[in-house]
Amino acid sequence: TPVIGVLALQGDVREHLIALAAADAVARPVRRPEELAEVDGLVIPGGESTTMSKLATVFGMLEPLRERIAAGMPVYGTCAGLIMLADKILDPRSGQETLGGIDMIVRRNAFGRQNESFEASVEVAGIDGPVEGVFIRAPWVESVGATAEVVAEYDGHIVAVRQGNALATSFHPELTGDHRVHALFVDMVRAAL
Ligand code: GLN
């Protein structure tokens, strides 16, 4: 059984732990480099990417995370987590760092403000039937490089991308009872064991 961490610096950690357990992984929070070293894959939750970036720096996690992602550890980011996995942000706050891993350019808060949050059905490559996507101050992906694969679009915008062992969605499948996206990620982790 794969052991999958959820980066627990900030964001909706608990919901991901529950979704991963439902998708037959052993799930645990990860805050320190020693904990990161013990997991087979990692989820980066939704939350606030500038805060997450600051806390990753303060907790000495930025470089360990970059190194493991660059070494091919399977990683899945939702919303703020998608922003963390982008090689480039269009409108970063000053000092905002990303981990990188996916050759894409991301626009933060692209779908609007908190009160413009919405739910929509999204077709995701590799999953049968639509997934209910919860979009909360969600980013979209402005463009992807040649090695990144678009796996979902909504309203003409890229909302899910995969590149090698890295997966990212603008929306939050962990906030619905549907664990198919987490199951897809658990399969990616299993394949990399
Ligand atoms: N807008 C947030 C950010 O920039 C992301 C929102 C979310 O994760 N739900 O980090």
UniProtKB/TrEMBL annotation:
Oligomeric and partner information: In the presence of PdxS, forms a dodecamer of heterodimers. Only shows activity in the heterodimer.
Under the heading InterPro entries, the entry gives: Class_I_gatase-like (IPR029062), PdxT/SNO (IPR002161), PdxT/SNO_CS (IPR021196)
> Which reactions are catalysed by this chain?
L-glutamine + H2O = L-glutamate + NH4(+); aldehydo-D-ribose 5-phosphate + D-glyceraldehyde 3-phosphate + L-glutamine = pyridoxal 5'-phosphate + L-glutamate + phosphate + 3 H2O + H(+)
Protein known as: Pyridoxal 5'-phosphate synthase subunit PdxT
Query: What EC number(s) is this enzyme filed under?
Result: 4.3.3.6, 3.5.1.2
- Per the UniProt record, the source organism is Streptomyces coeruleoprunus
Binding-site list for L-glutamine: G47, E48, S49, R108, I136, R137
Q: Pfam families, from UniProt?
A: SNO
**Can you tell me where the transmembrane regions are?**
none
UniProt-annotated catalytic positions: C79 (nucleophile), H172 (charge relay system), E174 (charge relay system)
Which keywords fit this entry according to its UniProt record? Glutamine amidotransferase, Hydrolase, Lyase, Pyridoxal phosphate
Keyword Hydrolase present in the record's keywords: the answer is yes
User: Record's family?
Assistant: Belongs to the glutaminase PdxT/SNO family.
Q: Which GO terms describe its molecular function?
A: glutaminase activity; pyridoxal 5'-phosphate synthase (glutamine hydrolysing) activity
The task this protein performs is described as: Catalyzes the hydrolysis of glutamine to glutamate and ammonia as part of the biosynthesis of pyridoxal 5'-phosphate. The resulting ammonia molecule is channeled to the active site of PdxS.
Q: In which pathway does it act?
A: Cofactor biosynthesis; pyridoxal 5'-phosphate biosynthesis
